[in-house]
Design goal:
Low-confidence stretches: none
Helix content: under 10%
Shape: rod-shaped
Distance between the termini: 45 Å
Oligomer: single chain
Number of strands: 6
Structural class: mainly beta
Mean pLDDT: 92
């Protein structure tokens, strides 16, 4: 439909994008717009949590839950931990990782202890780390 002044408006199918990340949610609605959907709408409904702009398909790992207690920021249904390498002796390679978690793998949002310059102590085959540790918060996506 052309209105006075020459502007063209049309009905476009869209989904509400409450957090502005480009991914919508819910059932499609008809949006009266120009050539494209306005900023608060999306052409898809792929958002898994529409109250946090960091939660969308392909979203990165975060250290705090997204607002509902979940750490699933990439919308795949799994809370994937970023830090997973543990400093544990490998009897096959007879080595230890050069760096990694020395306190077990922490849960999402929890602090871990990462050791550096790790090596095998002989003859006990126990890993130990020389450099000062860091204390990162487990990021999950």
């Amino acid at each position: 439909m052309t209105i006075p002044g020459g502007s063209l408006y049309q009905l476009l199918p869209g989904f509400i994008d409450g957090d502005g990340d480009g991914y919508g949610t819910g059932a499609p609605i008809q949006v009266c717009s120009g050539n494209s959907l306005p900023a608060s709408y999306s052409s898809n409904n792929d958002d898994c949590y529409d109250q946090n702009a960091g939660a969308y398909p392909g979203g990165g790992a975060q250290t705090t839950h997204r607002g509902d207690g979940s750490f699933d920021y990439n919308c795949n249904g799994i809370e994937e931990k970023k830090y997973t390498i543990q400093v544990v002796y490998d009897p096959v390679t007879k080595k230890c990782p050069r760096s990694g978690l020395v306190s077990g793998i922490p849960d999402c949002g929890q602090t871990g202890i990462v050791g550096y310059d790790c090596m095998v102590s002989r003859p006990t085959n126990v890993c130990w780390c020389q450099s000062a540790p860091s204390y990162p918060v487990q990021a999950c996506g």
